[in-house]
Amino acid sequence: MYGWWSSIIIGLLLLIVAIFLSHETKGLLLGESASPKTIAIIAAILKKTENVIDMGLPQIMHFGPNSVLLIVDVDLKNSLNLEEADKTMDSLRHEIKQMEPKITRVFIQTITKINH
Length: 116
Hints:
Layout: H1 3-30, H2 36-48, E1 52-55, E2 59-64, E3 67-76, H3 82-99, E4 103-111
Helix pairs in contact: 2-3
């Protein structure tokens, strides 16, 4: 008499677990976007740096709950020599990692915008 009720209850529990797991893994499969707060922090850091003229939209990839990769394009002043540009990029990497500890890897690509 109770056999078919227990089967229905087990089936419902399995359905609930499957829905929960699919919701949680969707972000890992499709990729999660960065929070607006994180993007605002990154943009503020880049905009306040005097050697940065412009920046592209930050691209973020999550490798886990506490491991995030950031890739961002920056346009540096043309008057910088190689050493100054390297110091600026190292400083940016360090400051971004300090302000957002979940960002464990930072790749900054330099771009040159040519105004015609």
